[in-house]
Amino acid sequence: MPIETQGVVALGKGRPVSLETIVVPEPGPGEARVEVQACGVCHTDLHYREGGINDDFPFLLGHEAAGVVESVGPGVTEVAPGDFVILNWRAVCGQCRACRRGRPWYCFNTHNAKQKMTLKDGTPLSPALGIGAFLKHTLVAAGQCTKVNPESPATVAGLLGCGVMAGIGAAVNTGNVGRGDSVAVFGCGGVGNASIAGARLAGASTIIGVDLDDRKLEWAKEFGATHVVNSRDTDPVEAIRSLTGGFGADVVIEAVGLPQVYEQAFYARDLAGTVVLVGVPRPDMQLTLPFLEVFGRGGALKSSWYGDCLPSRDFPVLVDLYLQGRLPLDKFVTETASLGDVEDAFHKMERGEVLRTVITL
Questions:
Q1: Tens digit of pLDDT for each residue in 257-286?
Q2: In the chain, which ranges are E strands?
């Protein structure tokens, strides 16, 4: 039967979020209802509130979550009640042209729950990234549930559901960082520092964090940066070249999403090096580069979608690495808070005071 619970909703563009009564249906075919234990406050949720994704208000916010499967609908075999899962927003279809080519991390037909969660008056909600997890129970497609080791605390496991996976995957999956590589990361927030952690995990020998904020650069050192550059005071391109024998980095990751930062990343890489864009630009942004430079520098310019991850492959491995003490996921958690604190968490995030606020339920 349906469940009524309190959830965090963005009712209109730019308006403060509010706690509303949410009706969560019983799971139908291919669906699962999950009892959410923890959910990170991600910048994407703020983008939804600000109308930066689309205008399909009202939005049920929250997506970076972990919890326990409460019930499943007919035909579900991937998970069962009682399973500890991380929620993902790219449940692959297995049938589209990307999946058929053996590249399911590019799936072009990912799916969500078919039923809608609603406000108490019946108004349908748009769940953030097809999840909506700032509430005690949520309804998702069963394929959005990735079973992992339950020894991991939900407060850290849930972070793999979005930002941390995006950053680690940008380095490991998209950038193909290897042993002995040099890596530069522009933007040392949650995603950028996850890229630094991923580069360290992959065996990079030189890892350079670039940001305008000294506090974030200190965080970068904690995640494995061997050098840091404050680009407010120093030309980051020249600094990166000087730290890499005058050549530039093998892999440069742009975790900001600004054209001017991407241009710096472009010039900060070595010949035949790789630039990875994982920062999310706004729809109105434009980029101009000298075409001859694009050709003459060779290498690759890549965009990283969700860290090019395959949740069923990557989430369990990364949780195991955390449990082995090899991946410091707990360092991403600056503070824990309650559902009523989401709006305040947005402001802290805007001011750069936190890597992640995690809402516990």
A1: 999 999 999 999 999 999 999 999 988 899
A2: 3-10, 18-24, 31-40, 59-60, 64-72, 84-87, 118-119, 126-127, 137-141, 145-147, 182-186, 206-211, 227-230, 249-254, 269-277, 300-303, 333-337, 356-360
